[in-house]
Every structure is written in C-alpha cells, then in structure tokens.
Amino acid sequence: MRAISIRTGLLMLGGFVLFFLLMYVLGLGHVSELRLFNGVIHLVCMSMAVRAYYHLHPENKENYVTGVVQGMSASIIGVLGFASFITIMLTIDPSLMAAIRNKSNFGAALTPFMAGVFIVTEGIVVGLVGSYLVTRMYLRNKTEEV
Q1: Is 0.70 topped by the overall pTM?
Q2: Among the four 5, 8, 66, 71, which has the fewest Cβ within 10 Å?
Q3: Is residue 33 situated within a structural domain?
Q4: Which of 132, 124, 141 is nearest to 64 (CA)?
Q5: pLDDT tens digits, one per residue of 42-62
C-alpha cells in the first residue's frame, strides 16, 4: 500500500512541478486560475492510486475506506512536496510573490509560507473529497462489470 502511495504521490508532485515550471517559463506563473489544471493532475493520480490498490487487493472491494486512504496518502505526498516547492520558489522569486500578492485579497500579509499553507489546505480538501468520489466510482464500475 505504501509503495503505491509513494509512487503515485511522487508522480503527482512531478506533474504539479512540471506544470508550474512550464507556466513559469511561459510567463504565466502568476495566473492563479491555471491551478485548476492541478485538480486534473490530482484526480488522475488519485485514480491511479485507487485503481492500483484494488487491482492488488481485490478482496477489499467491499471496503471503500481503504481506497480513500490510498488516494489520500498519495495526495498528502504530492501536495506537501508541491507546497514546499512553491514556498521555496516564492522566496527565491520576489517578483512572482509580488504578482500573486497583487491578485490576492491578503495583499502584503501574504507570505511564501502562508501561500504554502493555503496549497496544503486546498490540496487536503481536494484529496479527501476526490479520493472518496474516485473510490466510489471505481467500486461502482467494478460491481457493474461482475
């Protein structure tokens, strides 16, 4: 179970970082609306984690909690890593931090650390809700196939 979480969590982290760096190089790093694509990356990786878990443990197909835990574990790895990366990036690049502050309701009170905390909070919520939905859909589809 840990190997699946670690593998998919690191894949999620890689997707987040790669997408951010691509947008940063293109000069779109400050466009906060683009973070919605991170939701797609997040859900795809959680789906992979849940599917891999139930593929290895088909005896647990009646227990959706294990699938949710699997998705959340991968989410925590990916989100904590990305939040750390963003905190470092915002510390290194004050112009990016200033651009984000200008769009934020927090203004000058927004710090790189606070931005990282917001990313963790948002990621945990997406991870919890997303893991539950992905697990329920996966198990529903598997029962319909039988």
Answers
A1: yes
A2: 66
A3: no
A4: 132
A5: 999 999 999 999 889 888 777
